[in-house]
Amino acid sequence: MPSFTLSGVVLGAPKARDLADFYHRLLGWPFGDDDDDWSTLIPPDGGTKLSFQTEVGHVPPVWPAGPDDQQMMLHLDIRVDDLETAGAHAVSCGAVLAQFQPQKDVRVYLDPAGHPFCLFLPGA
């Protein structure tokens, strides 16, 4: 079997650079590739990159989705050491706390393009 390495995750957005700016502020990761239609953030620890591409017809997912809603295709899980402080930081960067919260030690937020992401404590 050939060797596989997951090198990146790509999120679509109406404007790639705008969503990249949000995650840059949220995570503090430096930019790699960076233009209006494709931007990449590089994790300092050398892990999986986070990229963003412009999708002109982007339709934000609905959280939680009903039967006729745009389904979320993926979400990011981000471990934090202080849920309240991290949540306040996420909101100051432009995230919105989702109305539906399914777990006690996890907080679901929506990024500016509508993608859900979860902040969670170690062990949650």
Keywords:
single chain; 124 residues; alpha/beta; Signal recognition particle alu RNA binding heterodimer, srp9/1; 2,3-Dihydroxybiphenyl 1,2-Dioxygenase, domain 1; 2 domains; four-stranded mixed β-sheet; 8 strands; 19% helix; 29% strand
Helix and strand topology:
Elements: E1 8-13, H1 16-27, E2 31-34, E3 38-41, E4 49-54, E5 76-79, H2 83-93, E6 96-97, E7 106-110, E8 116-120
Parallel strand pairs: 1-4, 5-8
Antiparallel strand pairs: 2-3, 3-4, 6-7, 7-8
Domain Glyoxalase-like: 9-120
Protein name: Glyoxalase
Pfam families: Glyoxalase_6
H/E element string? EHEEEEHEEE
Summing up helix and strand content along with how strands pair, one would put the structural category as alpha/beta
Count of distinct strands: 8
Supply the CATH class of the largest domain: Alpha Beta
From the alpha-carbon coordinates, what is the Rg to the nearest angstrom? 15 Å
Ends: how far apart? 34 Å
Low-confidence stretches: none
The averaged pLDDT comes out at: 94
Fraction of residues in helix: 10-25%
CATH architecture of the largest domain: 2-Layer Sandwich
Morphology:
globular
Q: What is the name of the CATH topology of the largest domain?
A: Signal recognition particle alu RNA binding heterodimer, srp9/1
How many independent structural domains? 2
Strand percentage: 25-35%
Query: Strand order of the main beta sheet, please?
Result: 1-4-3-2
Protein name: Glyoxalase
Pfam families: Glyoxalase_6 (PF18029)
Domain Glyoxalase-like: 9-120
